Amino acid sequence: MSNQMLINQVLNKPQLTFDNFNPTSNEELINILNKRFPPVIYIWGFESSGKTHLLKALQNKYGGIYFDSKTFPKNSMDLNTEEKNYFLDDIHEFSAEQYDALFYLFTKLQISGTESSDVSIAICSNKPPKQLEIREDLRNRFGWGLVYELQTLSDESLRVAMIQRAREMGWDLPNDVIKWLYSYCSRDLKFLFNLIDSLDMLSLSERRTITIPFVKDVISRLESSRL
Prior knowledge:
Layout: H1 3-12, H2 27-35, E1 40-44, H3 51-62, E2 65-67, E3 85-88, H4 96-108, E4 120-125, H5 136-142, E5 146-149, H6 155-168, H7 175-184, H8 189-206, H9 212-225
Parallel strand pairs: 1-4, 1-5, 2-3, 3-4
Helix pairs in contact: 1-8, 6-8, 8-9
């Protein structure tokens, strides 16, 4: 398998689960979602707080369909209304047409905040419902269920998450690499996990030691793969 194929395998593999989600400061929410998927849940938090990770973990556990602002239809007629679970990411980036389609989805599937609802929907944003510029009837529906602010990982929690990810693969992340990542890299947990997974696979295939120059090289390859 070529190195580029290894990179693509890391980028495409399903890897975001409750097992590798660091629950620090969010234990209450994780406990709820591990036991059941509420009919309506609205999760908001700042960048790199783990919103996408949590949505993907929910999808992996309960099944359903995932959308973000790039994939959610603008026309309600293009919506798939046959699913039982819906996961909507970054709705603060939705257009007015997409908000209309989302309202249609709530209405068509009779999504409600009661446990008797046959359909569940999880929504993520970088701001609470009251700060979104949306139609009021849709805002009201967001408040039918649980509204939860996701707490951003502290530097220490992020460090622990990275170390744990590497140790799951049988190696230790060097301290100088951790310090360099803190200083020069995104704090986005999905990016960091992809990086650690790539370091694991490429260090084995290329027989390389985990050093800062090697980390820089792998980051460059990851970024090129996204172009």
